[in-house]
Amino acid sequence: PAGEMGLEPLFQAWSYFRRRKFRECADVCSQLLEGPHAEQVAGTGPRREAAAAWSLKTRALTEMVYVDEIDMDQEGIAELILDENAIAQVARPGTSLKLPGTSQGGGPSPAVRPVTQSGRPITGFVRPSTQSGRPSTMEQAIRTPRTALTARPITSASGGYVRLGTASMLTNPDGPFINLSRLNLTKYARKPKLAKALFEYIFHHENDVKNALDLAALATEHAQFKDWWWKVQIGKCYYRLGLYREAEKQFKSALKQQDMVDTILYLAKVYLRLDQPVTALNLFKQGLERFPGEVTLICGIARIYEEMNNISLAAEYYKDVLKQDNTHVEAIACIGSNHFYSDQPEIALRFYRRLLQMGVYNCQLFNNLGLCCFYAQQYDMTLSSFERALFLAENEEETADVWYNLGHVAVGIGDLNLAYQCFKLTLVNNNDYAEAYNNLAVLEMRKGHTEQARALLQTASSLAPHMYEPHFNVAILSEKVGDLQRSYTAAQKSEEAFPGHVDTQQLIKQLKEHFAML
């Protein structure tokens, strides 16, 4: 029977698939499969048309929920706290992501550039790795990271993956399209063209890693271990199951057979999860010799250097990315933030304006533009940028960021009453904003309200133990009122968070002299 516009139904379904109308494509395939030849699809000798419709429907359903595994990387609490894959408990400086402060690159000081919970400087672009700080306690791990906006999942298997797995219930009210428990995987493994579509359906749509691994193992055996694609898929399954060494073997074997950029990226992911950033860097550099100018590989190197706190080298590699692809949003944003924190707001402004010209139009960009304009002394644009940012804010956390920055601007122009109101509005929108508590405490101290200031600083230090400012302010406040013991304890915490802070060192020295006199 002819379909819409007189097209043959199968050709029409293929047309929908090509135009990325996956829902319509799956519906047309379903009608074909419910026809008189439906039974033969599941039988031993399916007709070609029915088999094609079956294969096309699996591909359409997969595409509806497909997520690129290279960037989909979410470490759960279980992986962070109960991680037994560490190579060395005490890593050499500059060889571990767990101790980013040990980098030899001399990253920016926390006095200039704020740091995240894991001790890394705040980056210019949010991606999974910037949110996966290495918390030292379970309480810290469960608490929502500032940049993530959502609580961390208990394990990576319970985060986005489970939500993807439930897609099979939504796509068909009568139950799943393919009953995996009744599938004869050996039969499908002998049909390479059907097997690949089926594997992707099981892996991405059903989220059944075990069955996907069984099918891939049978298919690679049938291909006499000569098909690199199946080896990569087995590696992906092992990675998802947490068997990183087995995944490494599969990816290496696949690379020997067929040099592919994707396989290099998957293998680098394995090394990063094993906390071997230097091995990952070497892998990327070897890849660049074979694929010169490949943007994803250069970007991978830049990300690793950034996570290891080597900001200057990261910026160099991001510039190399822009030489190959001058519309790379991540590279432009990271170079822009690096210039901003290097006291070059005018240059940062050029990069953010470039993003605006490219069509990026969101709250974060106008927030950054507002700050750059303020520090570049272009005051006429500052408030209008922040107004636009408030208008574009999609949730309360984003609104809180804008109000916090407006508070900073108010402090800069000397309007402390406006600053006080802005920081209060920040806390109305996000009650866990440690920086706002700290700045409010400083304003309260100026008014002489010591007890309120102390309470606010205690809240700030408990919310963000990685920040040195609340601890230092508590130390100063306690020393003024004569509570030397509390002052000394807070100063030690401040020194632990930021060892190079001169004021903290001077305060500790003064307190030690006091104690020596006693």
From TrEMBL:
Signal peptide: none annotated. Keywords: TPR repeat. GO terms for cellular component: BBSome; ciliary basal body; non-motile cilium. The keyword Ribonucleoprotein does not apply. Residues 128-139 have a biased composition (Polar residues). CDD domains: TTC8_N. Residues 95-141 are annotated as: Disordered. TPR repeats lie at residues 434-467. GO terms for biological process: non-motile cilium assembly. It comes from the Eukaryota. This is TTC8 protein. The gene is Ttc8.
